[in-house]
Amino acid sequence: MLLALGFRPFYLLAGAYAALSAPLWAAQYGGLLPGANPLWHAHEMIFGYAFAVIAGFLLTAVRNWTAQPTPTGAPLGVIVSLWLLARIVGFQSLLLASVVDALFAIALAWGIGRPILKAGNRNRYFIALVLALGAASVAFQAFPTVALAVGLDLVLLIVAIMAGRVVPPFTNNAVLGAGARRIAWVEKGAIGAILVLLVLDALQLAVLTPWVALVAAVLHGIRVSLWAPLKTRGRPILWILHLSYAWIVVHLAMRGLAGLDIVSPVLATHALTIGTIGGLTLGMMTRTSRGHTGRPLQTGAPELVAYVLVHASAASRVFLPLIAPGLYMTSVALSAFLWFAAFATFVASYYPILTAPRLDGKPG
């Protein structure tokens, strides 16, 4: 049953990996365990955790977009095994991890590419984005700083595109009269600004980055405000998506300020990785897991606890060092514990869901 559809193994493995890897890194960073390697931590959060959630989402969504089958059973097992192998060898060699990541990206591109091309679907660019993530992991070996920046930009781009697709309709379908809307110039400008940042990072044109990031922050602020976020206050399964997206605005604003030497770039990075990527993936994993197993799109105590914990993790990692610089190590430890608790809650509560047949008896 675990290999019945892509979201099942990848969401479960991503949640478990997130829960285990962040505390491990915090213990190494704090000197409690040997082997601290900031590059490993950064590499694995992008090409390990985030890539797994993207894979699970796309292998599931492409089937709906195209009405064509995506890998299940043994073929899906091969794709999952490549991701898992990359994580295992990464503890010994990031070079080997990057090579296997590239194979994983190729396998995933095949898994989503065949149905997309067969159906003539408009989402062909996701094939290129998946391959670009694999290439960025390989480029990490020669140009780690550039590859990490480009990898983060690619994940941000994918997240922004997918959020624009699903958050407004989710909101309007669930909240009567919400009025979430998209305006063409805002949508194009917001996505275009991320593409410009990606190009600037790839070409290392840092002098322009702060100003583009600040403009992008304004555009994404307008974008999310048009999605009627305040109308979702009583629905955790919705507000988690809106609040997580709002961290993009924080990230871009802080990235602009970091480029002007006003705040630390590390804080800007964690606004994206914990606030947006952590929060939005957690929200999408819970929602799509329930939807694709025939369960009602409603949250209970476990989901609410996980949502609150992941955003508390982001706030403690990003804002506590600003308020009290002397508590920097405390902020790292606290954030890691809250992150662990959020994803441990997800794994514990969704393991029975992800490993059981659909309630309605349908395949998947």
Tell me about this structure:
It is a single chain. The chain has 364 residues and is mainly α. 77% of the residues lie in helices and 0% in strands. It has helices at residues 7-29, 38-66, 73-90, 94-119, 125-139, 144-174, 184-203, 209-225, 236-259, 265-291, 301-318, 320-323, 328-354. The chain starts with 6 loop residues before the first helix and ends in a 10-residue tail after the last helix. The model has no long low-confidence stretch (mean pLDDT 95).
Task: Give a brief rundown of this model.
The chain is mainly α and 364 residues long. It has 13 helices and no strands.
Task: Give the total of beta strands.
Answer: 0
Number of distinct helices: 13
Low-confidence stretches: none
Instruction: Tell me the structural class.
Output: mainly alpha
Described by the principal axes of the CA atoms, the overall outline is globular
SSE order: HHHHHHHHHHHHH
Give the % helix. Answer: over 70%
How many strands, what sense, and barrel or not for the largest sheet? none
Instruction: Give the rounded overall mean pLDDT.
Output: 95
- What is the alpha-carbon Rg in Å? 19 Å
